[in-house]
Design goal:
The protein is an alpha/beta fold. It has one domain (8-240): Rossmann fold. The chain has helices at 17-28, 40-50, 65-79, 102-130, 151-171, 189-192, 197-206, 215-226, and strands at residues 8-12, 32-37, 55-59, 84-87, 133-138, 176-183, 237-240. Strands 3-2-1-4-5-6-7 form a seven-stranded parallel β-sheet, with helices on both faces. β4, α4 and β5 form a beta-alpha-beta unit. α1 packs across α8. The chain starts with 7 loop residues before the first strand and ends in a 9-residue tail after the last strand. The chain binds nicotinamide-adenine-dinucleotide. The site of nicotinamide-adenine-dinucleotide (NAD) has 30 residues, from α1 and α6.
Length: 249
């Protein structure tokens, strides 16, 4: 018996990077998982790599509220309910805020922040029907740091931290827990598009454990927060950064 046997989970942005690792970790612990993503090619790869794991690839743009409701309702119907929602989808783009492309900024907000609202709205009735549930939002340690050209990204993640506490207060009385994971720098396709080789090196050196967390380690933490082991934990943001944020001068 896995720690999540009999549970079902909808994970967004699960075509690659941290989202795929979370989907695989939840499924290895026995959950039936919808790996949702906007990218067809990544979804095919995920389905192929999943092998015997109970993972269904679902095409879903989290910025499209109608589509989010249709895909979450459809998965819950087919899987016999919903226990876990992981809001992970993101669009990375770093540039100075002073002349940041407004269309890119809007798309980032539509995916990273509003997409989280829509998934929450669509998933809540299903979690409520179970009388329990766990929602995990992806934040970032970038919220409490100053990172060059990352104003739009970090402000979205700051919003996720605040939202997590609000959602936890709103759903706590219904037995539904809401927490956030704040990874340190994790090598993924998205992070590689904004962090240079030099940047990765200095991040590993600044971490007290002298390494960078892997996507699989973020998956392990998601399993913990989704499981009954975290029954008393709600409204928190859990850092998984190999100690990068506690280094002094
Ligand atoms: N990698 C890091 O260093 C790091 C650090 C801190 C926090 N995080 C957070 O972890 C999460 C995952 O990051 P990652 O590095 O794996 O990102 P990534 O860019 O590698 O993967 C993001 C996935 O989201 C999908 N996606 C993009 N737009 C979408 C949409 N509209 N609808 C559905 N799916 C969409 C992409 O296709 C992709 O598969 C993000 O929320 C990110 O902010 C990452």
């Amino acid at each position: 018996m896995g720690r999540l046997s009999g549970k079902t989970a909808f994970v967004t942005g699960a075509g690659g990077g941290i989202g795929r690792a979370i989907a695989f970790s939840l499924a290895r612990e026995g959950a039936t998982v919808a790996a949702a993503d906007i990218n067809d090619q990544l979804l095919s790869e995920t389905a192929e790599l999943a092998g015997d794991l109970a993972i269904t690839a679902v095409k879903c743009d989290v910025a499209n509220r109608t589509e989010v409701f249709s895909k979450i309702d459809g998965f819950a119907r087919q899987a016999g309910g919903l226990d876990i929602l992981v809001n992970n989808a993101v669009m990375f783009h770093y540039a100075p805020l002073v002349d940041f492309d407004p269309q890119i900024a809007s798309r980032m907000l539509d995916i990273g922040l509003k997409g989280t609202y829509w998934c929450f709205q669509a998933a809540t009735p299903h979690l409520k029907a179970r009388g329990r549930g766990s929602i995990i939002n992806l934040s970032s340690i970038a919220v409490s740091m100053s990172i060059p050209n990352a104003s739009v990204y970090t402000s979205i993640k700051g919003g996720i931290d605040a939202l997590t506490r609000q959602q936890a207060a709103e759903l706590g009385p219904l037995g539904i827990r809401v927490n956030a994971l704040a990874p340190g720098s994790v090598p993924t396709p998205g992070a590689n598009s904004v962090i240079t080789a030099e940047g990765w090196k200095s991040r590993a050196q600044k971490s007290v454990l002298r390494y960078l967390p892997s996507a699989e380690e973020i998956g392990d933490a998601a399993v913990f927060l989704a499981s009954d082991e975290a029954a008393s934990i709600t409204g928190v943001t859990l850092k998984i950064d190999a100690g990068m944020t506690i280094t002094g001068p």
